């Protein structure tokens, strides 16, 4: 089925000016960018967005990293978009990511791993709402 998922191109990637290379990977896999904005997350926004990880030992570092520079947040649309996006991103830890995936090619570390993508339909809906109003999404 056609789905939408939330993608974030992280500060390590905006810093290296490789957002286009990453978007090319999504588009080449058949995903369409139907909403997009470049923003600098506040501490509160990054903390809320990753609230599910609040108890994890890496939470503080994750929030600092995600606020360390601009990010590009996007809604990607396509057939099985959630799974397809996860496939194109590759494993969270770049040392485990399959060849040709975004994280294998571009990620610097498990933290500076270039991209975030929603992991399930419910989280995709929540994460899209977190950043975009309905009229900002143009399919
Ligand atoms: P992301 O998909 O954005 O969701 C949470 C992020 O935490 C994850 O990608 C990683 O970049 C980051 N992270 C940092 N350390 C770890 C870790 N040890 N295990 C899982 N995620 C981590």
UniProtKB/TrEMBL annotation:
InterPro entries tied to this protein: NDK-like_dom, NDK-like_dom_sf, Nucleoside_diP_kinase, Nucleoside_diP_kinase_AS
Biological process, per Gene Ontology: CTP biosynthetic process; GTP biosynthetic process; UTP biosynthetic process
SMART domains on file: NDK
Localisation per UniProt entry: Cytoplasm
Function: Major role in the synthesis of nucleoside triphosphates other than ATP. The ATP gamma phosphate is transferred to the NDP beta phosphate via a ping-pong mechanism, using a phosphorylated active-site intermediate.
Enzyme's top EC category: transferase
Reaction(s) catalysed by this chain's protein: a ribonucleoside 5'-diphosphate + ATP = a ribonucleoside 5'-triphosphate + ADP; a 2'-deoxyribonucleoside 5'-diphosphate + ATP = a 2'-deoxyribonucleoside 5'-triphosphate + ADP
GO MF term set: ATP binding; metal ion binding; nucleoside diphosphate kinase activity
Protein's name according to its UniProt entry: Nucleoside diphosphate kinase
EC number: 2.7.4.6
Keywords: ATP-binding, Cytoplasm, Kinase, Magnesium, Metal-binding, Nucleotide metabolism, Nucleotide-binding, Phosphoprotein, Transferase
């Amino acid at each position: 089925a056609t789905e939408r998922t939330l993608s974030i191109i992280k500060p390590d990637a905006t810093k290296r000016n490789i957002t286009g290379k990453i978007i090319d990977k999504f588009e080449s896999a058949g995903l369409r960018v139907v909403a997009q904005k470049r923003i600098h997350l506040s501490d509160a926004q990054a903390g809320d967005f990753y609230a599910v990880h609040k108890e994890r030992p890496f939470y503080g570092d994750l929030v600092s990293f995600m606020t360390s520079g601009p990010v590009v947040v996007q809604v990607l649309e396509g057939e099985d978009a959630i799974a397809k996006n996860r496939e194109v991103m590759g494993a969270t830890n770049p040392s485990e990511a399959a060849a040709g995936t975004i994280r294998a090619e571009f990620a610097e570390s498990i933290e500076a791993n270039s991209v975030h993508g929603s992991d399930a339909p419910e989280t995709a809906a929540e994460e899209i709402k977190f950043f975009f109003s309905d009229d900002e999404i143009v399919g």
